[in-house]
Amino acid sequence: MTATTAPPPRSGAAHARTDRAEPAGRRRSPVTWVRGGGLSTLVFLLPLLLIFGLFSWFPIVRAVIMSFQETNLVSDPTFVGLDNFRQVLADPILWKAVKNTLYFAFLALLFGYPIPLVAAVLMREVRRAKGLYSALAYLPVVVPPVVALLLWKFFYNASPTGVFNTILGWVGLGPYPWLQDASWAMPSLVLAATWAGAGGTIIIYLAALTSVPPELYDAAEVDGAGLWRKIWHVTLPQLRGVLFITLILQVIGTAQVFLEPYLFTGGGPNNATVTVLLLIYRYAFQNSLGGDYGAATALSLMLAAFLAVFSLIYFRLTRSWSTS
Amino acid sequence: MTLSPTDNPSEIGVVAGDAAGTAGAAATGAGLEPDDTSRRAAAASRSRRAADGRRLRARRRKALDGVEDRAALSEADWRRPSVRWGMGSTHVLLLVVLVVAGLGPMILLAKFAVTPTQDILRTPMAVFPNGIAWENLDKAWNDVQISRYFLNTIWLALGSWVSQIVVATTGGYALSVLRPRYGKVVQALVLSTMFVPAVVLLVPLYLTILDPPLLGQSLINSFWAVWLPAGASAFNVLLVQRFFDSLPREVFEAARVDGAGPYRLFWSIVLPMSKPIIGVVSVFAVIAAWKDFLWPLLVLKDPAIQPLSVRLPSIEATTDLGVFLASLAISTIIPVALFLVFQRLFLQGAGLGGAVKG
Fold it and tell me: How far apart are CA A278 and CA A100, in angstroms?
C-alpha cells in the first residue's frame, strides 16, 4: 500500500485519501510503484479486471460493433451500415412482439404491482409469527423458475381434468382453455410470472416499511388520524421512493420477458405470445439458415436504448416527488 | 431514498440472533394508557420517553429485520375491538391466501410426485385414490437420470459461487481498502454494467464463449462457460465493496503498523470480518446458478453436462407424467431446503437487494 512510501501512516479513515494522493507529486518509476504496493493491488484487482473485461466490457462493446456487421461464423464479418436495423424494423413479427411485450408489461403491472404493496402493508401490522408470513410469501421466489413454470403448465392443462379446471369446477366455473387460446394465453403467463415474482417485491416493501419513522405515526395520531389516513398520509408517502424504483425495475424486467413464453407456449398460439426477447433468441439461435447475429444484436440494442430513454424520462418526471 | 439497510451492512450479522427478543419487547412496549383520547397523547409521550433507550437499540437493529416498535396501528388501536377483530381476521385471511398461494403449489407438487400417472390425469385433486406410487421418484432419479443432472447443477452452482466470491471479495478489497488511483475508473466501469440490460450481452457473450480471446479454445460444452461469466456481477462487487467501506479503518491501520501486508490484511483481517456479506452473496450465487436457464441452454449443448433447469423442459414430452412431476419435485428440494435453513439470510438479502438497486 502507498503508506510505506508515504510519511509515517496517520490513523483514521479520512487520511487514507491524502496518503494515496501523495506519491503523485514525486516521479514514479516502476520500482517505487511495486514498492508502494501497486503490484499487489493490481493482483487483487486482476480477477475482477479479467472477468469483467472478458465477459462484460468486451461483449458490450462487441454488441455495438456487431449490430453494424453481417456476422456468420464462416466468413469474416463485414460492415453493412444500418442494414441490420432496417431488416429488423421491417420484420412484421417485430411489431407483434412489441405489442405482446407491452401487453405483458401492462398486465404484469396490473396484477403484480398492487398485490405486493397491499400484502406488505398488511404484513407490517402482523404481530405474531411475522416470520411465517414472509417465509410463505417468499417461498415461490426460491423455486427454480423452470420448475415453477413447468408445474404451472401442468396446472394449466386445458382438459376438464386439469388441476385448475378441476378446482374451478368445484365452484361451477370453467373449464377454461388457459394456454391453448390466443386471448387466454398472455394473462395465464402473467399470472404465473406474478406468482413467481411477488414475494421478492413484498420483502423489499417490508424492508422499506421498517424504516418509516414511528414518530410520524405518533404525530398523525395526535392529529387524530385513523388507520386509513395514517396509511395514506404517512405510509405511502414514506414508501414513494421505493415504489418508484420497483415500478421501473418491473418495467425493465418485463420488457425482457423470455422464460414464460419460451416454456409455456413457444410464442404461440399463432405468435400471440412472441416477445421481443423471444424474437432475439429466434434470430440468433433458432434460425435454420444459421444465426443472424447482426439482427439479434441490433434488436437487443434497440431494446436497451428504449429502456434507457424510458428510465431517463421516468426519473426526470418522478424526481420532484421522489425522496432522494 | 429513505431505506437504511445499506447504510450499515455490518449489522447484518448482529441482527440475526435476537429478532425474537426484539419482537417480544416491541409487543409489550408502549405502556398501559387507557382508551381515553385526551390522556392518550400524554401517556404516549411518557411511554415514549421510557421506551427511548429500547427504541434506540431496536432502531439500530431494525434495519434489515422487519422488527420494530410499531407500525401504522398503535397499542391503543389494537385494544379497540373493531381494530382487533377487523385486522385480526384480515391477517387470518392473508395467512390463508399465503398458504394457498405460497405453499399450495409445493404441496400439490409433492403429492403428484408420488401419485400414479393415471390418477393424476383422471382425478388430479383426489387424495391417493389408488395408492401411492413411490416408484415415480425412483424412476426419475435412476431411469431419467435426474441424479446426473442434479450433480451437474451442483457443480455449476459451486463453480459459480467460487467465481463470484473470488471476484467480489478481491475486487471489493482492492477498490475499498487498497484504493489505487485508477480505482475510481474501474469502479465506474463496473457500475456502468449494471445499466446494461442482460439481453444486450446474450449474443456477443455467446460468441465470446465460442471463441474466447486469450484462451484460444472454445468453452462451449464446458462448465467454465457458465462459471466464468457468473463472476461478472456488478451487484456483488457493489455489495461487498460497500460492506468493506463500513469496516473500521483503525483495524486496518493497526494491522499495517503490526507489519501485515496487503495479502495478510485481506486473508486474516478483512475476510474474517466479512462473513455476513459473504453469506448473503453466497446464498444468492447458489440460488441464481440453480435458477439459470437460458445461458446454460446456449453454452452446454451436450445433454450429459446440462443442469436440471435445461434438461427438465427437454424431457417433458418423452417422460411419463408422474415421473416427470417427481423430477420437478426433486429439482425443487435443494433450493427450498436452503431457503428454510438460511431463511433470515434470504429475506435480509432480498430487502438489501431492493435497497441497493434503489
Answer: 11
